[in-house]
Amino acid sequence: MSVDTSISVDEIRKEFPVLHQQVNGKPLIYFDNAATSQTPECVTNALIHYYQNDNANIHRGIHTLAERATTAFEETRKAAQRFINAGEAEEIIFTKGTTEGINLVAQAYGRKFLKAGDEIIISGMEHHSNIVPWQLLCEQTGANLKVIPVQPSGEILLEDFDRLLTDKTKLVSVVYISNSLGTVNPVAEIIAKAHAAGAVTMVDGAQAAPHHQIDVQALDCDFLAFSGHKMYGPTGVGVLYGKRALLERMDPYQGGGEMIREVTFEKTTYNDIPYKFEAGTPNIADVVAFKAAIEFIEGIGFEFLHQQEMALLQRGKERLYSIDGFTPIGTAAHKTSVISFLIDGVHPFDLGMLLDARGIAVRTGHHCTQPLMDHFQIEGTVRASFAVYNTVEEIDTFAEALSEIVKKFRS
Question: Where in the numbering of this chain does the Aminotransferase class V domain appear (predicted)?
């Protein structure tokens, strides 16, 4: 597929009013996209349109507004199905984000099917949301948690995974792309090996969804979770994909309205998927607006996204790696547009505040990956993460600001 040459970064930036402001007297440079990306007007317009025209509860009312809201809500489900190439819309469950999706699988699948002595494998670069739910499950069931080690480059090796994989392995849950390092993991190979051992697979797709074309049927993953706010969409909405056969065998995650078929004081029967896992009134407005975010990405296309983000990553390496005392954390051969680093003698928090004073937003700290930071024997890093609306000129300004800050610390 060729890149659409009619698309330009300048035109894309026009869709994001938040980018056209000054912070601390300087033009905003937003490099915290791995935490939360900014939102284009098409998404905020969809949100406003819903509240001004269609606001009503869904799936229960027969009046016009309820029917319009229900239709819009379910259209987003179809858009999410298309976006990750799920086999059917019923395999798409709306959550409040990746974290809830992983917790849902841990509790609704794990508590039912795992037992004492079973093993769960994760990697050493996981976000806390793909560590803590499995620790809780191990406490509840007596299962054991095993961790694929991380190499100095910030990569995991399939040989290390092979050594951990046994007939006791019942579930493997790994991150597609590391939020701290930008490492792209070999998830297809991990999934295939896990299945060969009889294990179920979960993929944390939070960082992958805005950067990579995801095809769950090609990957053959059993579960995958991602979040709207990392892919130009609203906060508080996410997706859990699960294979129908597994979802139908799982118990509900929460009880309440919508997830029921019939309730008596003696017994409750449950609704069909996906509604069995969507108890209560959902985040209707943000789910409706999420469709616009999906269509925004599809309109740009992953070829252009990849080309733009790799150009930014390359420019960042060229300009930043030569700065005095600069140490990159995570140098995997396969990376997305994230540069995580330290400057010798300068605390990451100090760097973050000094950059913010110049209008440059980066993330500092452990990035919800404390075990990974412990592995590298560091407290945290400065993380600059780039999106399709960022520019080479912003990279240059960032590099110049960082150089000036370092010189002042050295003087």
Answer: 29-398
Q: Which DSSP string corresponds to 63-98?
A: SHHHHHHHHHHHHHHHHHHHHHT-S-GGGEEEESSH
Enter the pTM of the model. Answer: 0.95
Dist CA 115 CA 143 (whole Å): 6
Q: What percent of the chain has pLDDT over 70?
A: 97
pLDDT tens digits along 27-83: 999 999 999 999 999 999 999 999 999 999 999 888 999 999 999 999 999 999 999
Query: What residues act catalytically?
Result: 368
Q: Rounded to whole angstroms, how far apart are CA atoms 104 and 112?
A: 12
DSSP 106: I
Range of the domain at 24: 9-30+301-410
150 and 221, same domain (yes or no): yes
CA angle 101, 103, 106 (to 5 degrees): 115
Handedness of CA 120, 124, 130, 133 (dihedral sign): positive
| CB-based burial, 347-366: b 16+ in 10 Å, e otherwise | ebeebbebbeebbbbbbbbb
User: Would 2 be classed as within a structural domain?
Assistant: no
Q: Where are the alpha helices (DSSP H) in 150-232?
A: 158-164, 187-196, 216-219
Q: From CA 187, how far away is CA 387, in angstroms rounded?
A: 23
Q: What size, in residues, is the chain?
A: 411
290 plus 361 within the same structural domain: no
- H helix intervals, 85-153: 98-104, 111-113, 132-141
User: Residue-wise over 51-65: b if at least 16 C-beta within 10 A, else e?
Assistant: eeebebebbeeeeee
Query: What is the H or E stretch that residue 284 is in?
Result: helix 284-300
According to DSSP, the β-strands at 169-175 and 119-123 are parallel
pLDDT of residue 254: 80
